[in-house]
Design a protein that fits this description.
Layout (H helix, E strand, L loop, with lengths): L7 E12 L2 E12 L3 E6 L5 H8 L7 E6 L2 E3 L4 H6 L2 E4 L11 H6 L5 E2 L2 E2 L1 H14 L15 H14 L4 E5 L7 H16 L3 E5 L3 H7 L2 E6 L2 E7 L5 H9 L17 E11 L6 E11 L2 E6 L6 H9 L6 E6 L2 E2 L5 H7 L1 E4 L3 H5 L6 H5 L10 E2 L2 E2 L1 H14 L17 H14 L4 E5 L7 H16 L3 E6 L2 H7 L2 E6 L2 E6 L6 H8 L13
Parallel strand pairs: 3-10, 3-11, 6-9, 9-10, 15-22, 15-23, 18-21, 21-22
Antiparallel strand pairs: 1-2, 1-4, 4-5, 7-8, 11-12, 13-14, 13-16, 16-17, 19-20, 23-24
Length: 517
Amino acid sequence: MAEKDQSYVVEMLNITKVFPGIVANDNITLQLRRGEIHALLGENGAGKSTLMSVLFGLYQPEEGEIRMDGKRVEIRDPNDANALHIGMVHQHFKLVECFTVLDNIILGVEPNKLGFLQKKEARKRVLELSERYALKVDPDALVEDITVGMQQRTEILKMLYRDNEILIFDEPTAVLTPQEIHELMQIMKNLAAEGKSILFITHKLNEIMEVSDRCSVLRKGRYIGTVDIADTSKEELSRMMVGRDVKFAVDKSPAQPGETVLQIQGLTVPSKAHHNNAVKNVSFSVRRGEIVCLAGIDGNGQSEFVHALTGLEKASAGKILLCGQDVTHSTIRQRGRAGMGHIPEDRHKHGLVLDFPLEDNLVLQRYMEPPFQKGGFIQREPIRAYARELIEKFDIRSGQGPVTKARSMSGGNQQKAIIAREIDLNRELLIAVQPTRGLDVGAIEYIHSQIVRQRDLGKAVLLVSLELDEVMNLSDRILVMYEGEIVGELDPKETTVEELGLYMAGAKRSRKEGAAS
């Protein structure tokens, strides 16, 4: 290896970080070389994000020290981290929703002259960076109106705008499409070639193999080891991470579709971001005993479609029939009672009440039913017993069990909590939107088996996913959405990833109206 590769730009030595009821980092040492891409791999709740939050100054460790270029440094908060040229893109973005993209990028380092904000130069620089790194954004769009993928790009530009030399990416591809992931991998390689040092938290073994120089593995808060990517394999990494062999293929028998559970007729949903409709005259059905996947590149109307389907937004035309009942104008609770379960795309906004304990989040849709209430009063003991049962059954890791604040749990365990709640409701239709976003291979294997089990129990499953592997492995039928329309219906056994990609990019169309009914 070249000489420069051997010098450590950052060393985290013997870091220990404790939260109530859990040792998140137990004596961990991590060393980052200058100009390398160093992956940090581990299961949900293994302590990866916590370790990076210590480096970024969000947490203070109980023990251990951080050195940069061999000198000990104190990082008391993110301002200290920025002063040391450390930047971080968080798994759950830190953006001000009512601000524009440009305002978010310059927030905290606003250019001014005699106290007056000078946005012209900043705008020019942001556009230059966006061009240079192929991170296309609209600087004037409000963050609340842009897709999750665009928010991701905004976060990366925020980091580049501050001239950061050490870049921490926490699950950066969890919300990106395959094309965007490919671009991001290239961007990361270019950044490393320019001498920037990258710490890359991910669960996706393919990405680690493609882009990383070395990989450090954590398991249950402990350091397992560091390997050179050139000398390892996906199987070896997954074994280090989970402590056992993991199956990468989904085990499922052929579908046995029954009667129609969900019927969508001519659904049209207006867009909040522009004057056109986000969803245009969409019709299809989902039957018992099948997994129908709505695939597409982020921002092609899937989110608006799901919001209209689940009652979060109103459709301007069309009909939604659930188990033969018209629920087009029903409330969210009425749709639930008619047989709809929903694993939402944004677990923080629509999936959990973050400041509630885990046990309350697990009964959000059932607290009004016996035995969880009696005479209008919440019954704590039955709620806690039920929560313990789901925690055990779905392997939800939380420091203080049922009373753990949802906010303090790792992203993957928050996701498991939502999946546990929705599956246990035992409803006729399960709408699963990005169900494995941010989950490790062990958890993905488990969640996929749960979704297939729902299908085999005779439930109808509508999967909405941006992950091509997930779409191909889990679906019985694939519907491709492009610019708010269904442009193709494919059989995963007969199509290829390349053909699917062409439909997703709008280069191919085949669907006749009503073909999926």
